Amino acid sequence: GKGIASGGIEWYLPLFFDATATIFDYLPKQAIVCLHGALDKSAQSFWFDATSRYKLMAYDPEKPILKPEMVLIKADDFFKQTHDFALIYMQLDALSTLPALDVDRRAEQPLHKLQSFLSQTSQRVLITAESLGRRETMLQLFNEYRLDIQICDSWQAFLQSDSQFMLGVSSLHSGFFNDQYAVITEAELYASTVRQQRRREKEKARNTEGMLKDLSELRLDDPVVHEQHGVGRYKGLVNIDFGEGETELLLIEYFGEDKLYVPVSQLFLISRYSGGPPESAPLHRLGSGQWEKAKKKALKQIRDTAAELLNLYAQRAARKGHAFTLSLHDYEAFCEGFPFEETPDQLEAIENVIKDMQSGRPMDRLVCGDVGFGKTEVALRAAFVAVMGGRQVAVLVPTTLLAEQHYQNFCDR
């Protein structure tokens, strides 16, 4: 409802159109279709799952579903339609799988499996990292254990090089080897540990807390802020016909019961009101210029605050602090003692704190979080880096009971 498509609505697609199409309807006649791996087996398995689901749920009157052939192409029909195009079949039978090469970070020589493989293989070897940052981290680990390896920027650079062992960047998840080359991925080197997708998640743009993602977040009479008109109250959705069919609009009521209709397509202009209790939100008058004056005043205050912050940051940047060095092997072995999977926010806090400690500037960071959200683990890892760097660490807590709990936690680790 409210203009938002429900999950699974694609299974009812034929009900919304006179006719549906497949990918083959969009391919030009000169297209080349590549069939990779055991596609026939996968297609048959998928079709079997779809028909089994239909047989199981077909007679539920509260949740009627369509026959699979109304929504999907049958596996046999799919392969028949591929014959209308030039075909390439790709098989990986000629490629051999790699032995176990995972890094054993608790061992005295964490890279012993990899080093043994490299000493015995006659092929040239390319090791791939997930990103440039991970490549530098892996290079540090290899250098720490005297594994001589060169950097390469592309597969072509690897082919043109004479180096026996090289390190590059690729999104490959599984490696292989043949008569000439062996490709080893980061996922295979760290196969023994739980891999979080922290770097990929970190690279995703985060929506600000105030932005509305969909209409389900709005309740009737909630105060909202329109980017151009200021604070009003959300009064629900209305449909208005402008002569070309009905259009769905948000109704926002301003001071004096003035009304503003906002197309759903402009939802990005609306954000939550966060200036105080919702019931006492001050409403602006449309067209009065009041909102523009408030924005200009706020902008001036922002500039003044920014100038003060820049001055403060300049003073901090001029000060020198202690730059800690990080032994990757010891640090990652310590991290494995954490019995839970880190949350994305926890990982981000840990990485920022460790980066601060390595930067050579005095750290000025406050880690905030509710009870049970993992702040202690952030402190534990920072304390570990400090102690391994030859410094003492003091942990201050507000109560004797909490001090005892932290003492036990630190002793356990």
Write a compact overview of the structure shown.
The protein is of the alpha/beta class and 413 residues long.
How large is the count of helical segments? 13
What's the number of extended β-strand segments?
Answer: 12
Shape label:
flat
Order of helices and strands: EHHHEHEHEHEEEHHEEEEEHHHHH
Distance between the termini: 51 Å
Strand order of the largest sheet: 4-5-3-7-6
Q: Could you explain the architecture of this structure?
A:
- The protein has 413 residues and is of the alpha/beta class.
- Helix content is 36%, strand content 15%.
- Strands 4-5-3-7-6 form a 5-stranded mixed β-sheet. The protein has a 5-stranded antiparallel β-sheet with strand order 11-10-9-8-12. It has a two-stranded parallel ribbon with strand order 1-2.
- Helix 11 (344-359) packs parallel to helix 12.
- The longest helix is centred in the last third of the chain and has 29 residues, at 290-318.
Defining traits:
5 domains; Thrombin, subunit H; 413 residues; single chain; alpha/beta; five-stranded mixed beta sheet; five-stranded antiparallel beta sheet; 12 strands; Rossmann fold
What's the helix and strand layout?
Blueprint: E1 32-36, H1 39-57, H2 68-71, H3 75-82, E2 86-90, H4 112-120, E3 124-129, H5 132-144, E4 150-151, H6 155-160, E5 165-169, E6 176-177, E7 181-185, H7 186-189, H8 198-203, E8 223-226, E9 230-241, E10 246-253, E11 259-263, E12 270-272, H9 290-318, H10 328-335, H11 344-359, H12 375-388, H13 400-412
Parallel strand pairs: 1-2, 3-5, 3-7, 4-5
Antiparallel strand pairs: 6-7, 8-9, 8-12, 9-10, 10-11
